[in-house]
Specification:
This protein is an alpha+beta fold. It has two domains: about 90 residues, RRM (RNA recognition motif) domain (Alpha-Beta Plaits, 2-Layer Sandwich); about 220 residues, Jelly Rolls. About 15% of the residues lie in helices and about 30% in strands. It contains six helices and 22 strands.
């Protein structure tokens, strides 16, 4: 949820923005965020709906385009909305205030070529909006497993968070049929070398609520092979990559990767890069990027991307595809490799 520190309403004669401050609307008056989103998305793509303050009776609706906000305010302001229990909505344009930037913030790239990290590829619009909706419906019809801050589903093999590996003796079955179109697209992707020979047998689906990210880590070398595919659905985020100096800090050998976030001075020697992951994009980690760089999703509700504030949606869902390794890893990065220590 957002808070009032991010927003301030403008008068109806103020400059149009893609963000709307909507009063008489919110959980405190019996309306869920999903119900509100379903009404406002009729006027265009929304990047999120957030509580405007602690009252729960006012929300911010953030559109991707100013024109969508203009259409919505003309249709709904001062009029009873039958889809929201007949409530009369009072709407003004809103300016989003960026949260203070950390002193050590890193510039966010939009393209993989800007990162300068060998082995990272980002494919925009890897799937269509319709395919995205079908995938979300499919996983929402399956049972979720609740972790402390997010929900997950595992297919093929269950990922064991305590040991950061899988039990190869306990296969859950084949990957579900609803991901077959994704696997087909991967195998026919002209930008991936030997794409037709890629075999993926493990899938983890993660659902991230607003503000929840992912601690820095390298997927265990001895557990998974050299290609990791991650499809982003529903909401945007940024992903940061860190290359630590040899021997400085190797969380792949530690059980608690949150140590780095809690004690940043413990690992001060590293190089950082960051990239924006829009919905429906596919990220491929291979080679150096997969074996030597930690990847990390900051625990933010709002991301600054080249002076633009990107609000994370009410949820972000990722599909991470991997191939379980049958033998020891023999990569070219032994300092990060548990098989070669």
């Amino acid at each position: 949820m957002g808070t009032s520190r991010f927003t301030r309403p403008k008068g109806s004669d103020g400059e149009s923005t893609p963000n709307l401050y909507v009063a008489n609307c919110g959980p405190a008056v019996g309306l869920s965020i999903d119900e509100i989103a379903s009404v406002f998305k009729k006027f265009g793509e929304i990047s999120g709906v957030f509580q405007a303050d602690e009252s729960g009776a006012r929300v911010i609706v953030s559109y991707s385009q100013v024109a969508s906000a203009q259409t919505a305010i003309k249709a709904l302001d001062g009029r009873p909305c039958s889809d929201l229990g007949g409530r009369v909505l009072h709407i003004r344009y809103s300016i989003l205030r960026a949260p203070p930037q950390a002193k050590d913030s890193v510039s966010v790239c939009l393209l993989d070529s800007e990162l300068g990290i060998p082995g990272i590829y980002l494919f925009h619009d890897f799937i269509t909006t319709k395919e995205e909706e079908e995938l979300l419906v499919a996983v929402d019809n399956r049972p979720w497993k609740c972790l402390s801050k997010r929900r997950v589903q595992h297919y093929g093999y269950e990922f064991l968070y305590e040991t950061r590996n899988v039990n190869t003796k306990h296969q859950l079955g084949e990957l579900p049929l609803f991901v077959s179109p994704i696997l087909t697209k991967i195998s026919s992707c002209p930008h991936i070398e030997n794409a037709g020979n890629i075999i993926l047998d493990q899938l983890t689906v993660n659902e991230y609520p607003p503000g929840v990210g992912l601690s820095p880590h390298i997927d265990t070398h001895s557990t998974f092979e050299g290609l990791i595919f991650s499809l982003s659905l529903a909401g945007p985020c940024i992903m940061e990559f860190r290359r630590y100096s040899q021997g400085t800090w190797l969380p792949s050998s530690l059980s608690n990767t949150d140590m780095q976030e809690q004690n940043p001075e413990y690992c001060s020697s590293f190089v950082r890069r960051s990239i924006f992951l829009p919905p429906r994009s596919m990220l491929l980690l291979s080679g150096e990027a997969r074996y030597a760089w930690h990847h990390y999703i900051p625990h933010h509700k709002v991301d600054m991307v080249r002076d633009n504030m990107i609000i994370r949606g009410s949820r972000r869902v990722s599909f991470t595809f991997r191939k379980v390794r049958a033998g020891p890893c023999q990569c070219e990065f032994p300092q990060y490799c548990d098989s070669q220590k």
